[in-house]
Prior knowledge:
CATH class of the largest domain: Alpha Beta
Helix content: 25-40%
Radius of gyration: 19 Å
Order of helices and strands: EHEEEHHEHEHHEHEHHEEE
Largest sheet: 7 strands, mixed
Number of helices: 9
CATH topology of the largest domain: Rossmann fold
Distance between the termini: 48 Å
Shape: globular
Number of strands: 11
Structural class: alpha/beta
CATH superfamily of the largest domain: Vaccinia Virus protein VP39
Amino acid sequence: MPSLRIIPDPSTNPALRARAESLARELSAISSDLALVVTPHRLELRVPDARLGAVYIDPDAVDPQTLRGGNKRQLIARAVGVGGTWSRGKAPRILDCSAGLLGDAMLLSALGCEVVAVERSAVLHAMQRDALERLRASDDPDKAAMAARIALLHEDAASVLARLVAGETIPPDWRPEAIYFDPMHPERRKSALVKKEMRILRTLVGDDPDSGAVLRAAIAVPGVRRVVLKMPRLSPPLTGAEGLTPVGLHEGRSVRYEVYSGAGSGPVTG
Length: 270
């Protein structure tokens, strides 16, 4: 498989060329048919099939009402316990085990949570870093504040959870109160339409065959009150999670959030 291509667009821009050269050195070990394109506004993943377009982290993914502090009863907020009795009305500290394109991490941060976003892919981590740097410099104070509450961690989720189970902290002296996990699910053969983002991301990172083990490790982290698993609404139970029973369920049109009691759990409400 060829090495990941890093392309400045437009190629005549000296700043973009320098940025592309820096990323090429950082990501030199990555093999992929994809291209990482450096544009004036963002980093994009592109595939040879132009019909699929580009995949990027959308700085406008969070709606304005949520950015301004509203929508605190939406499904994901209720699932992680924003404003719940166990968190004493405060937004919990959340470890996002599969940050991807940062959509859920940004939403959780906009809801007031401190988020540590874990990502094993070096390419996605570079895209996340670039997006947050731009957001932190934004003229929109709500977007800048949202970005400021997110910290990035380039590491495999299983490794991070093992350290937390062993009693370590994520520097500087940070431990989560809730853990959020949205694994890459195997592609459904009967699905005629798969979102382009998922198709391209699967090309880059593959599936998550250890999802069940990650969920079990998350539940075992000391001090964590709840673990939230995001799943397609009609999908079967997570492989490897046999015998685990959620204590709460929040269902939408296309997704469901399963809530599990963590090792530091009291009664889970909300």
